[in-house]
């Protein structure tokens, strides 16, 4: 992220009416051109671009904004539904706990997700100014559908079926700081309280 | 015997069934039932629009022997909401393991009832090298001596206890976990 300070000031002046943050295009002098003209790569995904946003410097009184690291792996040879169970397991855990759970999980996707988490941790320490590599927690972890390929599956007696070879993507967002405390489950008492509150909020409309 | 023809969506399966049935009708398949009359009356009920021949109302004709075979098939499409309820039920989610500890020797993670993977791999590697030394000494299969084996590392001499034993030399410092005697 080597952008010229003069360019940054000029861009902030131009774009201050639009949004506080702007895209940091890699190595270009014109920050207005958000279209990344790349000939070698196919297409940079949206998740990879999320690492490029730069916030303006914080004012002295504001609370410190925690670092966010976005990482993903594309076209993993695994089913997205099976990967979802692992993603659901580690949602909201601290990174150490997540790595421990994945190490002793018997699923194929667990090894892949562990590699992704270690890569993201490494990226966080090197590039995103995170002080302690254990001070990260998993804010979001999602799976997506990759490109499917249809193939022939031969049965007996000359019959065949079409099977689909499925691939998936895995996305993770690490945020600095301890993991948030888990929400207490909604009890019947809470539901009753909300219902009574709704009844109390009723009022007369379209009247004098 | 009552025949209920059902059009199956797979043309190959339908062609196969038609061919088999044709052969049965023409008597070109005498060995199928071992000389007796065919026990079943209705054909396989596969998904698809059923073509019931006229004169027979419904599927249960009064003259049937009662050996009709019906296959279960889903009546309606399961909606994504119902599918999600089933797939995301807590019994189907992965449980978090609470039996993970830290190995006191190497500091890696280990399960409580399982040996530490790192320490096991370390010992396995050393054993493999010792076995290679043994193989070099023996020279071939079936040459194992009838005495005990002692492994000595750099700077170690055989004691009085290792009098008649076979000595295997390893060219490295003794590992801390491999206690002598």
From TrEMBL, chain A:
<protein>
    <recommendedName>
        <fullName>Large ribosomal subunit protein uL22m</fullName>
    </recommendedName>
</protein>
<dbReference type="GO" id="GO:0005762">
    <property type="term" value="C:mitochondrial large ribosomal subunit"/>
</dbReference>
<keyword id="KW-0496">Mitochondrion</keyword>
<dbReference type="GO" id="GO:0003735">
    <property type="term" value="F:structural constituent of ribosome"/>
</dbReference>
<comment type="similarity">
    <text>Belongs to the universal ribosomal protein uL22 family.</text>
</comment>
<dbReference type="InterPro" id="IPR036394">
    <property type="entry name" value="Ribosomal_uL22_sf"/>
</dbReference>
<dbReference type="GO" id="GO:0006412">
    <property type="term" value="P:translation"/>
</dbReference>
<dbReference type="InterPro" id="IPR001063">
    <property type="entry name" value="Ribosomal_uL22"/>
</dbReference>
<dbReference type="InterPro" id="IPR047867">
    <property type="entry name" value="Ribosomal_uL22_bac/org-type"/>
</dbReference>
<keyword id="KW-0809">Transit peptide</keyword>
<keyword id="KW-0687">Ribonucleoprotein</keyword>
<dbReference type="Pfam" id="PF00237">
    <property type="entry name" value="Ribosomal_L22"/>
</dbReference>
<keyword id="KW-0689">Ribosomal protein</keyword>
Automatic annotation (TrEMBL), chain B:
<comment type="similarity">
    <text>Belongs to the bacterial ribosomal protein bL32 family.</text>
</comment>
<dbReference type="GO" id="GO:0006412">
    <property type="term" value="P:translation"/>
</dbReference>
<dbReference type="InterPro" id="IPR002677">
    <property type="entry name" value="Ribosomal_bL32"/>
</dbReference>
<dbReference type="InterPro" id="IPR011332">
    <property type="entry name" value="Ribosomal_zn-bd"/>
</dbReference>
<keyword id="KW-0689">Ribosomal protein</keyword>
<comment type="function">
    <text>Component of the mitochondrial large ribosomal subunit (mt-LSU). The mitochondrial ribosome (mitoribosome) is a large ribonucleoprotein complex responsible for the synthesis of proteins inside mitochondria.</text>
</comment>
<dbReference type="GO" id="GO:0005762">
    <property type="term" value="C:mitochondrial large ribosomal subunit"/>
</dbReference>
<keyword id="KW-0496">Mitochondrion</keyword>
<dbReference type="InterPro" id="IPR051991">
    <property type="entry name" value="Mitoribosomal_protein_bL32"/>
</dbReference>
<keyword id="KW-0687">Ribonucleoprotein</keyword>
<dbReference type="Pfam" id="PF01783">
    <property type="entry name" value="Ribosomal_L32p"/>
</dbReference>
<protein>
    <recommendedName>
        <fullName>Large ribosomal subunit protein bL32m</fullName>
    </recommendedName>
</protein>
<dbReference type="GO" id="GO:0003735">
    <property type="term" value="F:structural constituent of ribosome"/>
</dbReference>
<keyword id="KW-0809">Transit peptide</keyword>
């Amino acid at each position: 992220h080597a952008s010229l300070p003069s360019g940054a000031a000029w861009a902030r002046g131009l774009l201050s009416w639009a949004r506080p943050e702007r895209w940091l295009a890699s190595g270009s002098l014109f920050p207005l051109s958000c279209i990344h003209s790349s000939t070698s790569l196919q297409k940079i995904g949206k998740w990879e671009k999320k690492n490029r946003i730069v916030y303006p410097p914080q004012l002295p009184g504001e609370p410190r904004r925690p670092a966010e690291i976005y990482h993903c792996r594309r076209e993993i040879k695994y089913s997205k539904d099976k990967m979802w169970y692992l993603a659901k397991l580690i949602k909201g855990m601290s990174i150490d706990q997540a790595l421990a759970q994945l190490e002793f999980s018997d699923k194929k996707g667990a090894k892949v997700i562990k590699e992704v988490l270690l890569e993201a941790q490494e990226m966080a320490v090197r590039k995103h100014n995170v002080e302690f590599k254990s001070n990260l927690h998993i804010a979001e972890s999602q799976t997506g559908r990759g490109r499917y390929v249809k193939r022939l599956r031969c049965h007996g007696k000359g019959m065949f079926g079409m099977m689909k070879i499925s691939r998936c993507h895995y996305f993770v967002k690490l945020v600095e700081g301890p993991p948030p405390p888990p929400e207490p489950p909604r009890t019947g008492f809470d539901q009753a309280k909300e219902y009574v509150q709704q009844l109390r909020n009723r009022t007369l409309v379209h009247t004098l | 015997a009552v025949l209920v023809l059902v059009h199956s969506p797979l043309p190959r399966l339908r062609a196969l069934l038609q061919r088999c049935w044709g052969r049965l009708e023409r008597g070109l398949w005498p060995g199928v039932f071992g000389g007796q009359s065919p026990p079943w009356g209705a054909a396989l009920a596969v998904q698809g629009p059923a073509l019931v021949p006229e004169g027979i109302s419904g599927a249960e004709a009064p003259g049937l022997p009662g050996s009709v075979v019906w296959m279960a098939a889903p009546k309606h499409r399961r909606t994504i909401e119902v599918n999600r309820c089933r797939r995301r039920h807590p019994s189907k989610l992965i449980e978090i393991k609470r039996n993970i500890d830290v190995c006191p020797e190497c500091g890696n993670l280990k399960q409580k009832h399982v040996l530490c993977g790192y320490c096991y791999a370390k010992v396995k590697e050393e054993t493999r090298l010792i076995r290679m030394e043994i193989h070099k000494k023996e020279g071939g299969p079936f040459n194992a001596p009838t005495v005990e084996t002692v492994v000595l590392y750099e700077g170690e001499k055989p004691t009085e206890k290792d009098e008649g034993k076979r000595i295997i030399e390893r060219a490295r410092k003794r590992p801390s976990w491999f206690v002598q005697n």
